[in-house]
Amino acid sequence: MPLDRHPGAQAAGINWLRLMCLRRPGHDLLDFSAAFNLFLLLAMGHFVGDFGLQGDKMACEKCPGCGRTLSWQWWLAAHGGIHAFLVALITGIPLLGLAEWILHMAIDVAKCRKLSSMRMDQGLHFACKALWAFVAVAVASQPGWLH
Ligand SMILES: [Zn+2]
């Protein structure tokens, strides 16, 4: 089944990637303009997920061994799930949301364990967003994606 016909992708509703590609027919496999615009949307979504939708309780209790009101795994899964949802919604590709879910949790646990600084943590998150943008544009450039 083509990814754009996947029920999850259709349920996402607004697919910014599709809109950008439809506005620019004949785009290349690596359309840097589309990838950069998608990266900007993902970066904006990152701030919504990591700051706007993450309260103090979640920020503390998602760390291993720090769960008080719920076990830390639930807090971490919920935080990663919010980011996963935003990535799936923006790209229209639920599998990229799943990849974000897994890597976001791993990067956050590394920060909880003081293996990375705030700067390193955020840098890794933005590197993931750049990767998702290029993968999404490459996938969308395949024949059959838009038609
Ligand atoms: Zn986070």
Describe what you observe in this structure:
The chain is mainly alpha-helical. The protein has one domain (32-140). The chain contains 7 helices and no strands. The chain has helices at 7-11, 16-23, 32-52, 56-61, 72-91, 94-112, 118-140. Helix 6 runs antiparallel to helix 7. The two termini are 13 Å apart. Mean pLDDT is 85; it is low at 8-14. Bound molecules: zinc ion. Zinc ion (ZN) binds at residues 50, 79, 104, 108.
TL;DR of this structure?
The chain contains 7 helices and no strands. The protein is mostly helical and 147 residues long.
List the helices and strands and how they pair.
Elements: H1 7-11, H2 16-23, H3 32-52, H4 56-61, H5 72-91, H6 94-112, H7 118-140
Helix pairs in contact: 3-5, 3-7, 5-6, 6-7
The structure holds zinc ion.
Zinc ion is lined by residues 50, 79, 104, 108.
Name the descriptors.
147 residues, mainly alpha, elongated, 7 helices, single chain, binds zinc ion
Bound molecules: zinc ion
The tally of domains stands at 1
**Which structural class do you get from the secondary structure elements?**
mainly alpha
Estimate the mean pLDDT confidence.
85
Considering DSSP H and I runs of 4 or more, what fraction of the residues is helical?
Answer: 55-70%
The stretches of 5 or more residues where confidence is low (pLDDT under 50) are 8-14
- Beta-strand content: under 5%
Largest sheet: none
Bulk shape: elongated
Number of strands: 0
